[in-house]
Amino acid sequence: MNDSAASVVRNPEDPAFWRERRVMITGGLGFIGSTLARRLAELGADVVVVDSLVPEYGGNIFNIQGFEGCIRVNISDIRDQHSLRALACDRELIFNLAGQTSHLDSMHDPLTDLSINGTAQLSLLEICRQNNPSVKIVFASTRQIYGRPQYLPVDEQHPLNPVDVNGINKLAGEFYHLLYNKVYGLRAAVLRLTNTYGPRMRIKDARQTFLGVWIRAVLEQRPIEVWGGEQLRDFTYVDDAVTALLHAAMNVRLEGQAFNLGGDGTVSLLKTAETLVAIGGGSFSVHEFPAERKRIDIGDYYADDRAFREVSGWRPKVSFEEGLRRTLEYYRHNLNHYL
Amino acid sequence: MNDSAASVVRNPEDPAFWRERRVMITGGLGFIGSTLARRLAELGADVVVVDSLVPEYGGNIFNIQGFEGCIRVNISDIRDQHSLRALACDRELIFNLAGQTSHLDSMHDPLTDLSINGTAQLSLLEICRQNNPSVKIVFASTRQIYGRPQYLPVDEQHPLNPVDVNGINKLAGEFYHLLYNKVYGLRAAVLRLTNTYGPRMRIKDARQTFLGVWIRAVLEQRPIEVWGGEQLRDFTYVDDAVTALLHAAMNVRLEGQAFNLGGDGTVSLLKTAETLVAIGGGSFSVHEFPAERKRIDIGDYYADDRAFREVSGWRPKVSFEEGLRRTLEYYRHNLNHYL
Fold this sequence. Notes:
The structure is a homodimer of 339-residue chains. Helix content of chain A is 41%, strand content 17%. In chain A, strand 5, helix 7 (165-184) and strand 6 (188-193) form a beta-alpha-beta unit. The first copy, chain A, has a single domain (3-200, 236-263, 302-317), classed as Rossmann fold, CATH 3.40.50. In chain A, helix 3 packs across helix 9 (238-250), helix 6 (110-131) packs parallel to helix 7 (165-184) and helix 8 (210-219) runs parallel beside helix 10. With 339 residues, chain A is of the alpha/beta class. Chain A has helices spanning 3-8, 15-18, 31-42, 81-88, 103-108, 110-131, 165-184, 210-219, 238-250, 269-280, 291-294, 306-312, 320-334, and strands at residues 22-26, 46-51, 71-75, 93-96, 136-142, 188-193, 195-197, 224-227, 232-237, 258-260, 266-268, 284-287. In chain A, the strands form three sheets. Chain A has a seven-stranded parallel sheet with strand order 3-2-1-4-5-6-10, sandwiched between helices. In chain A, strands 7-9-11 form a three-stranded mixed sheet. A two-stranded parallel sheet of chain A has the order 8-12.
């Protein structure tokens, strides 16, 4: 962070900003949502989490264990516009993290993906425009909107070319937020996330990232199955992602635009498996990529997130090794709540 | 057209291709859809038109007057998936032209726009994938997906940056078609249309293009109201657009990609008004742009459609003056059917 940037960047955990701040988190019992909810509760915010607890998605009531008294939980679906209208009307800030995240599910059931990632998003924006136009919204988008990278690292000017239904619908969801910011002054900031990982991530299956099932394999002392291996990825530790979301909420210079969020360098799938095994024990085997996944795979991906870093002063604080260590440690104690 | 291109380009009106060809046209009672239906009926195709006849959209049963015996009309909404499934299952070709086209309507009722331009499109593709995977689909997209041009003329590599809900949803609709082509081999071609005009266009209001209300003003001997005036546009005469759609249907080299379709040069709004008045009589007045439209206006736009011309050999045949002359002539005889 250079000095001139530092001078205008506010501490993202400034208690004066967060104390009693009325916040809603959609998808708030999910992996990132619940980590954010816990952080905000610690900072003194008035937090409502909204989650459908659809079993295939990431919501898990255990994720807010220990915070039951200071986080208000509302079980409802973001497709339920009546519920959302009632919940959103008095909020100052909405972290809009609810979504269908599985690329394969989006191909097998594209209309459900659209209803959640497209229609429900537009509906929430309409609710806010009509009932709470002074609210600020932070929307979690995804690298998936870029599709197969045409160059690396991928910056925000990269062509938008989603390669699955999920990517198309997330792109529409992102565009809606930016449009409502521009046309109606409904303040919105968009972060395009890459592979976020850490405690409370879904490890039951690969619906959030492949890393989840790898972590589970290590914990259950089964060999990790590496499909391909050469592909490069960047990972964001969940606490760093949450700090980035706090920046997006507070910093007016992040409004009306979409920013990439990356992590602490680049790592191949093979190297990921090696690191995981070095920390957690076990073994891995390497396999050829199955055809069904190959058709929608994007090859290497890593983000250029210099624009976000420049404006916010954000830097990742947790290295990949340290993040994996903390994640394995968490699941060693809590595995039974995630299977 | 250079010689090497000419040698591989088929006559888009080749009767051997079209005779008894089983075709469906969604939005087939609309402006472009009905003009296409009439042409295909003349070429001997087996034509089903599907149209909801929603009063605010372009459908008009009068548009196929004289062709009642050789065009099968099915009144249904593209959001009615049961109807679409039954109608689509035996078709060899679908011209998918149904859509909500009004930019202002898309802002006033964004969820309806999404249900028609997004959800119904994805649903139709799923129907075809499951029930008629050998069908070929030609999808009518729009310049609106580019938003405010960053350079001119706008080619297909121009950033995608829609400035209204309609543009976002049309972009998603386009992406779905290209994705299904790529992942499932469901053949699809996409044309991004600019301002199409001609006989049978909607002149009751500005829901299709501003040119409609101008034509009506000339016919009713009221002054044309020009908002702004300097903005440049390109126009495609409807018969030329229909020929382009026939190319898109026949030419395998147009599959799996989106192509711009432009017209016969560029013209300012002021020059458009002058030309119209020179041909049809009357007068015009120039006004400042209203704020609501300005927020979603895109400034100058004209397409670089060289890629489409190169692959197809298509060229516009009707000049802007001649097209306006034919249009005014049509409405002088049929105005009462369009008010």
